[in-house]
Design a protein that fits this description.
- This protein is mainly alpha-helical.
- The protein folds into four domains: 13-52, no CATH class; 73-151, DNA polymerase, domain 1; 173-325, Intergrase catalytic core (hpI Integrase, Chain A), CATH 1.10.443; 334-368, no CATH class.
- It has helices at residues 54-92, 97-112, 120-129, 135-151, 173-181, 185-196, 201-205, 237-244, 259-277, 287-302, 305-312, 342-350; strands spanning 13-14, 21-22, 34-36, 42-44, 212-213, 218-221, 231-234, 334-339, 354-359, 362-368.
- The strands form four sheets. Strands 5-6-7 form a three-stranded antiparallel β-sheet, with no helix packed on it. A three-stranded antiparallel β-sheet has the order 8-10-9, covered by helices on one side.
- A hairpin with a 5-residue loop joins β3 and β4.
- The model is unreliable at 1-8 and 26-52 (pLDDT under 50).
Length: 369
Amino acid sequence: MRYVATADSVQRWLCRDCGYRFTDPKALRKNQDCHINTANTIVSSSQVCDLLTEESKNLTETTRQETASREGTKQALDIKGKIIEFLWHLERENKKSKTIVTYRKYLTRLVNISANLFDPESVKDAITRQKSWGENSKRMATEVYKSFAAFSNLHFEPPRYKARSPLPFIPLESELDALIAGSNKRLSACLQLLKEIPIRIGEALSLKWIEIDSERRIIYVNTTEKDGKPRVFKISEKLLGMINALPKKNEKIFGLTGYQYISSQLATTRKRIANKLQNPRLLQIHFHTFRHWKATMEYNRTRDILYVMRLLGHRCIENTLVYTQLVSFENDQYHSAVAKTVAEAQKLVEQGFEFVCQIDGATLFRKRK
């Protein structure tokens, strides 16, 4: 019971069970579900009390909405705190920064579609309702929540979604070059690196200055992802110059640049150049697109799947076989070049030209447009 009284007002009563207020109990008609006993204590199992005025109804409804809002805010804060705890757990487990960013993105998407992360059935229903999500997105959201549920000691039986792997988009070399040319110094060097050597963006951001042999133009990739093998690559004079132009303020070539930051830079740059050149195909280019492009070009040049497998650092050849399906190009147009000296021939090979034949003391090379 709550007592509210002033010198000019009448006593008001609050039913703690139903939440409604009413005036002096002596003026009330007895209600079978809500009444006052002889000790002036309210006993109620009702939703509505007698003589409830319109004003008190509005006041009560406002109070109940505020209470629900506070409870919702508290739950949202609890979920947010649990997500932070989970992400910190992933950090302690030495998960890659890109993995942590992906987990955070999917958990945030689940919250945004009104899924209660503390209720596994609510998460299942929310994922099922997303008609615009593909099978891969639903599968990934389920896998992320499965890890979150295990961390939170929640029992979750994940629905089964089949992963679909469409063939990757392979751009023209001119489109990659346009994107590289229109980027800032750091992003441009990173994209040129990904174009010349087929490593992952996480592996590129982990490269250190001591892993570059400038004299022989060699890069050692020792920090690998997805259990990949360490590799050694030869790079061009152009790339070496772009890398050496970067500031040496950190042991890493690209400093403390994280995946999320450089990914945001790429998205902004890609959109600007696509609008400038009126080429929407550029919007499909991601960091991993460079790896797909390089692997496809190398298989087209050598027809040696084992060589491409070693180049990519794959431990399973099934992951490499996808590139055998990407060698049919829209046209057979080439850039041609002639080398008359060993130095000229060496430079053309470094630029990606392939040998054709020798004629009249000169060597012919070609490279696909």
